[in-house]
C-alpha cells in the first residue's frame, strides 16, 4: 500500500505577495511582521496543475485574500475573503494560463451554545 506524502511549508505575506515556489502542499501563512491583519493581493511561484492549501499560521493573525485578477487571484463571485478562524482552509490551483483560482474555502462553523 502506497503512502501519500504531503509537504508542509511556512510562508509569510510580504508586501501583499505570497511566494509558493517551494512546491505543492499545505502552507501555514503568517502576516507580514506578525501583524494582526494583512492583505494577500498576489500569489507567485505556483505551477500548473498543482493544488495548494493555505491555512492560518498564528491564531489572531488574519489575512484578507483580495479578488485581484491583475495579481493572479480570481475569487468566486469576485469578492474578497477575510480569514477569521484558525481552522479556515483555502485551496487553490494553478491554471494553465497562470491565473490562480481559489477552488474552495472551508470554514469550520462552531455552533452557538
SSE blueprint:
Blueprint: E1 8-12, E2 17-19, E3 25-30, E4 37-40, E5 42-44, E6 51-56, E7 62-65, E8 73-74, E9 81-82, E10 89-94, E11 100-106
Parallel strand pairs: 1-3, 2-5, 3-6, 4-7, 8-11
Antiparallel strand pairs: 6-10, 7-9, 10-11
Q: Catalogue the unreliable spans.
A: none
Count of spatially separate domains: 1
The appropriate CATH architecture is: Sandwich
User: Helix fraction?
Assistant: under 10%
Structural class: mainly beta
**Binned strand content:** 35-45%
Rg: 14 Å
Write the element-wise H/E pattern from the N-terminal end onward.
EEEEEEEEEEE
Number of helical segments with 4 or more residues: 0
Shape: globular
Task: Output mean pLDDT.
Answer: 82
Main beta-sheet strand count, sense and barrel state: 6 strands, mixed
According to DSSP, the number of beta strands is 11
Q: Can you tell me the CATH topology?
A: Jelly Rolls
CATH class: Mainly Beta
Strand order of the largest sheet: 1-3-6-10-11-8
N-end to C-end Cα span: 43 Å
Provide a descriptive summary of the structure in words.
The chain is an all-beta fold. The chain has a single domain, classed as Jelly Rolls. The strands form three sheets. A six-stranded mixed beta sheet has the order 1-3-6-10-11-8, with no helix packed on it. Strands 4-7-9 form a three-stranded mixed beta sheet, with no helix packed on it. The N and C termini lie far apart (43 Å). The mean pLDDT is 82.
